UniProtKB/TrEMBL annotation, chains A, B:
<feature type="domain" description="Peptidase M24">
    <location>
        <begin position="145"/>
        <end position="346"/>
    </location>
</feature>
<dbReference type="InterPro" id="IPR029149">
    <property type="entry name" value="Creatin/AminoP/Spt16_N"/>
</dbReference>
<dbReference type="GO" id="GO:0004177">
    <property type="term" value="F:aminopeptidase activity"/>
</dbReference>
<dbReference type="InterPro" id="IPR000994">
    <property type="entry name" value="Pept_M24"/>
</dbReference>
<keyword id="KW-0378">Hydrolase</keyword>
<dbReference type="InterPro" id="IPR050659">
    <property type="entry name" value="Peptidase_M24B"/>
</dbReference>
<dbReference type="Pfam" id="PF01321">
    <property type="entry name" value="Creatinase_N"/>
</dbReference>
<dbReference type="InterPro" id="IPR000587">
    <property type="entry name" value="Creatinase_N"/>
</dbReference>
<dbReference type="InterPro" id="IPR001714">
    <property type="entry name" value="Pept_M24_MAP"/>
</dbReference>
<keyword id="KW-0645">Protease</keyword>
<keyword id="KW-0031">Aminopeptidase</keyword>
<dbReference type="GO" id="GO:0008235">
    <property type="term" value="F:metalloexopeptidase activity"/>
</dbReference>
<protein>
    <submittedName>
        <fullName>Xaa-Pro aminopeptidase</fullName>
    </submittedName>
</protein>
<feature type="domain" description="Creatinase N-terminal">
    <location>
        <begin position="1"/>
        <end position="137"/>
    </location>
</feature>
<dbReference type="InterPro" id="IPR036005">
    <property type="entry name" value="Creatinase/aminopeptidase-like"/>
</dbReference>
<dbReference type="Pfam" id="PF00557">
    <property type="entry name" value="Peptidase_M24"/>
</dbReference>
């Protein structure tokens, strides 16, 4: 912060606020109220939040908690926030706000303009990616939580044969999978996507349809479930009945590509290196899939930057947690995607999810 | 739009995009990629989206779909968006962006600045709340979906005695309740909060702790579950063992307050009227609870504006769907909150959730 002449960070989003305070609630699902935390250049964080959150914030390590009754149509915390910032940011000083890729501002734009005006000769600048950089390398405690989440997903994926057979609608599979994840210990299941189709699926972000599974379908389930505020994010592919030669080969290729990514993943390698290691096997004739990337970091969010793309030259260091997510194209515009979660260690990398064998799982 | 000299709306958030296009995916859980939809003053919407979403967007009614491979660190869709806007917005014209209460911008601030610069003599202005106003009055199809969601929650709440008894940790109750909701037909359960404590709870937004329930606890579960993209949002209170006189009276008061709100809810009444009808019973000596409001609209989001606060003079009209959510204070800084979902009809209002009797539900 000092290097960048930032006198305070202003946080507005769930992961930023939680990272510095430990404030964990699903209440962010309600878009009504803005929440603010200020991290001064020196001293402890200050929470400037709606009064509805005072009791819960009071249970974190934050002791300076300032509240207003929100929603307030005339002044939804802006004056209180401006006054607080004026206390800790000197005249001509600057307040750093996340403004780079993967960020957004969780307050109405009209309130940002009011805040700028109320701050007078103090100005709002970029946070220069400080919070994102801090969050990029995980602590042992964070890695433990992600590992637990991955274990829950592993066990849930192992139980998929209990809930899947030809004739079951995909929407029922999605409901039942979330149930399995809860039974296996997930706190909640913020993300489940997937697809099913003969010899592959059309995309990896669709919600379920009511179409029944049939023999010859490839079913993919991709989950981001949460344990103690931390995500895992990986998928599994299943063949309903014996797989075609094309599907079998595609799965082999995906696992080989993932393993190549895993072997390339070590301190000093770059995200770009991981891309080329995987893409050279999964997709040697083209520059990646429609997804545009073959993996990403994760932790307090389902996906965190940076991304495994050719243009990303971020150096890997121990403690980074990321997904390896190669995809292959199949006939008739179908695709298949595989995903595992890994952590970078001093020696290389370690799988957090249980790495899959080259043979696709077969049900029925 | 014409009244406000807005030549195109620029949409960046999940509910805005879905409202106009039907694009339904849980992939918004990933913050990496921005998504844009342009609604021109005349003509059909145009989607400007990452290529990973092209297949799914292609299944909606939108036919003009322009994609880029995201993430792109140099230009994450900004040029494509600017070029598209320049096609449909005349020079000196303006692009309307949601900037009022309950809104946020789902793209990095640095990209907004780049977009403004690329647009040159076209300017980005407020959307004047146009999308929010459109979304405020629900269609019959939307009301049906919310009604179905509420029915699922009703049945789940009725099954709570299956999963609750003294000695069960609250975290297990939370997991099991989500499982019940899925069994009863929820597509997913984006929101579950609640609390438990002797004679009341401390707040209504906390996640679960591992503390076991005990005799004399009041357990509250508040869920926002989703059916076909639409939320319900209501809670239920349970006494573990016989309730104290204070708890029994508090629940009576909450139900009476809710019913008073229901009776006041008719076309021509205001949100403020609902506040006073409920608060006069629940909290006659003070101006509302810490939550600052006694209900809100809902639909594609868990909470939507406007809010039931004294300052809100929005007139109710048929098709509005809202929650009635009075709260009462109890000794030792405890509270209790009750919530039901209603729709405004020509004649008055109709409950979408099953209204509760005055006696608190007792388990064990």
């Amino acid at each position: 912060m000092a290097e960048h002449d930032v006198h305070a960070l202003l946080l507005t989003t769930e992961p930023e606020v939680r990272y510095f305070t430990g404030f964990l609630t699903r209440f962010w699902e309600s878009p009504t109220r803005p929440w603010f935390v200020i991290v001064p250049l020196a001293g402890d964080p200050i929470a400037v939040i709606p009064s509805i959150g005072a009791h819960l914030m009071g249970q974190t390590w934050v002791s300076d908690i300032r509240t207003w009754q929100s929603p307030n149509y005339n002044d939804d915390g802006v004056s209180l926030l401006a006054d607080t910032l004026k206390e800790i940011v000197p005249a001509q000083g600057s307040v750093g706000l996340a403004d780079q890729i993967e960020s957004h501002l969780r307050m109405p734009l009209v309130d940002l303009r009011k805040l700028e005006s109320a701050l007078g000769n103090r100005k709002i600048s970029s946070d220069h990616g400080i919070t994102a950089r801090l969050r990029l390398v995980k602590s042992e405690a964070e890695i433990d939580k992600i590992t637990t989440a991955a274990g829950i997903a592993d066990r849930s994926f192992d139980r998929v044969p209990e809930i899947v057979s030809a004739g079951v609608p995909l929407s029922q599979v999605f409901r039942d999978f979330q149930r399995l994840a809860l039974e296996e210990g997930a706190d909640w299941v913020p993300y489940l996507a997937g697809g099913a189709g003969q010899g592959g699926y059309g995309d990896v972000i669709s919600p379920a349809t009511d179409i029944p599974l049939q023999k010859g379908d490839v079913l993919m389930l991709d989950t981001g479930l949460v344990h103690d505020g931390y995500f895992c994010d990986f998928d599994r592919n299943y063949s309903i009945g014996p797989p075609s030669a094309g599907v079998r080969q595609a799965h082999h290729k995906l696992i080989e590509a993932t393993q190549a990514g895993f072997e390339a993943a070590r301190p000093g390698a770059t995200m770009s290196d991981l891309f080329h290691a995987m893409n050279g096997i999964a997709n040697p004739d083209a520059v990646g899939s429609d997804g545009g990337r073959l993996g990403h970091h994760l932790g307090m969010q389902l996906t965190e930057g940076p991304s495994i793309i050719p243009q990303d030259h971020t150096l890997l260091v121990p403690g980074m947690v990321l997904t390896l997510e190669p995809g292959v194209s199949l006939p008739e515009s179908k695709i298949m995607v595989h995903e595992e979660d890994i952590v970078i260690t001093e020696e290389g990398a370690r799988y957090l999810s249980t790495p899959q064998g080259t043979d696709i799982r077969v049900i029925g």
